[in-house]
Amino acid sequence: MAVHLKPIKPQRISDQVFEQLRELIFRGELQPGEKMMPERELATAMDVSRTTVRDAINKLVAMGLIEQKQGQGTFVRTPDKQSTSFLAEAMKSENATLVDLLEVRMGLECNTAALAARRATEQDLQFMQEQINEMDTAVKAGRLGSQADVAFHMSITYASQNPVQVFVMKRFYDFLFLGIKENLQYLYEDPQNIESIISQHKQIHAAIQSRDSEKAFETMQGHIRFVIDFFRNRNRG
Q1: Are residues 130 and 28 in contact, defined by beta-carbon separation less than 8 angstroms?
Q2: Is 166 helix (H, G, I), strand (E, B) or coil?
Q3: Hey, do 13-76 and 85-236 end up sharing a CATH topology, with the first three levels equal?
Q4: CB 153 within 8 A of CB 28
Q5: How many angstroms separate the CA atoms of 203 and 220, rounded?
Q6: Largest CA distance in the chain
Q7: Closest to 162 measured CA to CA, from 118, 122, 201
Q8: CATH 1.20.120.530, applies to 85-236
């Protein structure tokens, strides 16, 4: 039987730099609005040429993940209405609700958690734990902890090792947590809700860490159902 094989192409160094920086942005280690290291420092830290770094930066700019401000430097781009318009327009044109959006999240993230249970690296697991700790610290300091919540879910998405899933979820969270943040604040402002969410995050992390795909799916499902039920009950009130 004839087997058709394709030649292995070496990956360009600039693509490796691009992927590493993109990963930091998708994971939330580089936050929206945060200033990035200058080209020279990035080149030194990654042991590559400035030209290589510049090529990677240009690709990130073209994707809309970062922006360059004259005389100020390079910054992680803060999502705006333009970058999330497809979701905003879909909700507006179909008269969709926040619960409708959360139901879509249910479908996306349960599968993601199951994939992460099979594919997560030790680094992925460590970053999930760090975000749980960060959310706990933020809440105890009187903050909402919503940013750590976003980073936790994105870390699970990245652990799925599915680039399409990562891209879709990044856009989804940009809209969910920034485009309609005022609605989500009602969820975060209740201390009991925060305690429940942190506990659910720990259960999800434990399931992924134990490599139990079915349990990871179920715990993520229960977590998102908790959020959906909150808004359904709030709308009834």
Answers
A1: no
A2: helix
A3: no
A4: no
A5: 9
A6: 66
A7: 118
A8: yes
CB crowding 107-120: b at 16 or more within 10 Å, else e: ebbbbbbbbbbebb
Q: What are phi and psi of 150, to 5 degrees?
A: -60, -50
Report the topology of domain 13-76.
Answer: Arc Repressor Mutant, subunit A (1.10.10)
pLDDT, tens digit, 9 for 90 and up, residues 130-176: 999 988 998 888 877 777 888 899 899 989 989 888 888 887 877 76
| 208 close to 216: Cβ distance less than 8 angstroms | yes
pLDDT tens per residue across span 45-87: 999 999 999 999 988 888 778 888 988 999 988 765 444 556 6
3-state secondary structure of 35: strand
Task: Quick: pLDDT tens for 183-224.
Answer: 667 887 788 888 899 999 999 999 999 999 999 999 999 999
Q: How much is the CA Rg of the chain, to the nearest whole Å?
A: 19
- Kindly give, in sequence order, each residue whose CB lies less than 8 Å from that of residue 18, ignoring residues fewer than 6 positions away: 55, 56, 59, 60
Q: What's the CA gap between 65 and 62, in Å, rounded? A: 8
The span from the first CA to the last CA of the chain, in angstroms, equals 66
To 5 degrees, how large is the angle CA 158–CA 184–CA 188? 90
How far is the C-alpha of 202 from the C-alpha of 196, rounded, in Å?
A: 10
Of the candidates 152, 157, 170, the residue with the CA atom closest to the CA atom of residue 117:
157
- The full set of domain ranges for the chain reads 13-76, 85-236
Q: How far apart are CA 229 and CA 116, in angstroms?
A: 25
